[in-house]
Amino acid sequence: MALVTMRQLLDEAAKGNYGVGAFNVNNLEQVQAIMEAARETESPVIIQASRGARKYANDRFLYHLMEAAAEVYPEISVALHQDHGNSPETCKSAIDLGFTSVMMDGSLMDDGKTPADFEYNVRVTREVVEMAHEVGVTVEGELGTLGGIEDGVGSGEVHLTDPDQAVEFVERTGVDALAVAIGTSHGAYKFTSEPDRDVLAMNIIEEINERLPTTHLVMHGSSSVPKELVDTINRYGGEIRPTFGVPVREIQEGIKHGVRKVNVDTDLRLAATGAIRKAFAEDPSEFDPRYYLKPARAAMQEVVRARMEAFGQAGHARDYDPISLHDMAARYREQGHQLTTV
Ligand code: G3H
Ligand code: 13P
Ligand code: ZN
Questions:
Q1: Is the pLDDT of residue 153 over 70?
Q2: What are the distances in angstroms from CA 322 to CA 50, 96, 160, 291?
Q3: Which candidate in 11, 83, 162, 265 is catalytic?
Q4: Atom of ligand 2 nearest to the CA of 219
C-alpha cells in the first residue's frame, strides 16, 4: 500500500467527482477485510482509528498492522486517519505514530461529550492545523454536532451546521476537510423511519459546497444499517430494534455536492456480528476462532466492497503517485494552510 495524505486522496476524489469511504479499524480482521475489498475493487481508501480503537488494539499493534498492510497491498493508496481526536495532544500522538491525517473534533470538549462553543473549536482546530501542516499531515475539523451516544462518541444533542459559520470556521482554521452535521448520528439507531429530505438536511451540504468549493466535506454517521444485516443478527438470537440508517442514494447525492469522505463503522460491526452469530448457531460444537472470524471477515469485506463501488472510488487506486509528507509540508508553507489544489 502506498501511504498518502488524506488531502491528496480527497483532492484526487474531487477531480474525479467521487467519494472515499473511511472505515474504522480495531483489529486484524477489519484491516484485512478493508484492504481485500480495496484490492478487489482497485480503490484508494481511508483507514481510521478512534481513540477507543487505539486503546483497544494498542498503538504499536495498530502501527504494525498498517505496516503489514503496506507490504501486502503495495498497489493501494491509503490514508491513515485519527478519527474524532478530542484534543491537540491526541492529534499530536497520532502524527507521531505515523498517521497521515487527523481529525480535531473541537465541536465537543475534550471529554468527547460536552458540546463546545465556536471560539473553543476554532482555537483548538487552528492549533492542530499549524502543528499538522508543518509536517504535511491533513486536518479534518467538525462544525455542528451529531446525535447518538451509543458508541461513546457524541453529546446526543444535534446542532446542524450553520453555513455562515462554516465559511468563517474554514477561513479561521485552514482545515483541509470539514465534517458537517446534517442530522445523522453514530451507531445503529439513527432514524425510526426511512429518512427523507426533511430529516436529512442535504441542503446544508449543497449550500456549504457552493460557498466553500475547495473544502472537502465529510459525512460522519454514514452507515446505511442494511435491513438484511440487522435481520441476520436477529435471526440468530440478536436483539437489534427496528432502525434505519443513511440510504446509499443520499450519500451519492452528497458526493455530487462536495462530500469526499464518508465515515462507515457500524455497518462493518453489524456484518461481523451477524456472521459470528450465524456461525455459532450453525455449529455449536466449534470452538476454533478461525471458524467464526473467517465468515466475519468475509461479511465485512462484502460491505466495504459494496460501499466502494457505490461511492465511486472503485478503479482509482493507481491514478496517482503519492506526494510525500515532506513535499506536502512544503506546499502548505508556500501556498498557506488553505491549498486550492494539490
Ligand atoms: O465515531 C465513532 C466510530 O464509530 C468509532 O467508535 O469510539 O466506539 O471506536 P468507537
Ligand atoms: P457510523 O456509526 O454510521 O458507522 O459512523 C461512523 C463514523 O462516523 C465514524 O467517525
Ligand atoms: Zn464520526
A1: no
A2: 24, 20, 35, 38
A3: 83
A4: 8
Q: What is the mean pLDDT of residues 260-285?
A: 98
Q: How confident is the model at residue 1 (pLDDT cuts 50, 70, 90)?
A: low
Measured in Å, residue 326 CA sits from the centre of ligand 1 at 30
Rounded CA gap, 167 and 287, in Å?
55
Question: H/E element holding 67?
Answer: helix 59-72
Q: From the CA of 220, how far away is ligand 3's center (Å)? A: 4
Give buried/exposed letters for 13-36 (b at 16+ CB in 10 A, else e). Answer: bbeeebbbbbbbbbbebbbbbbbb
**Catalytic residue status for 321:** no
Q: Which residues surround ligand 3, an ion (CB under 5 A)?
A: 220, 263
Q: What residues does ligand 2 touch, defined as CB less than 6 Å away? A: 24, 83-84, 186-187, 220-223, 263-266
Q: What angle do CA 68, 71, 76 make, to 5 degrees?
A: 105
Confidence at residue 304, expressed as pLDDT on a 0 to 100 scale: 99
Identify residue 203 by its one-letter amino acid code.
N
Q: How far apart, in whole angstroms, are the C-alpha atoms of residue 169 and residue 218?
A: 15
pTM: 0.96
Question: Atom of ligand 1 at shortest distance to CA of 83?
Answer: 1
Positive or negative torsion for Cα 191, 251, 77, 305: positive
Q: How far is CA 68 from CA 1, 125, 211, 261, 329, in A?
A: 9, 32, 41, 24, 26
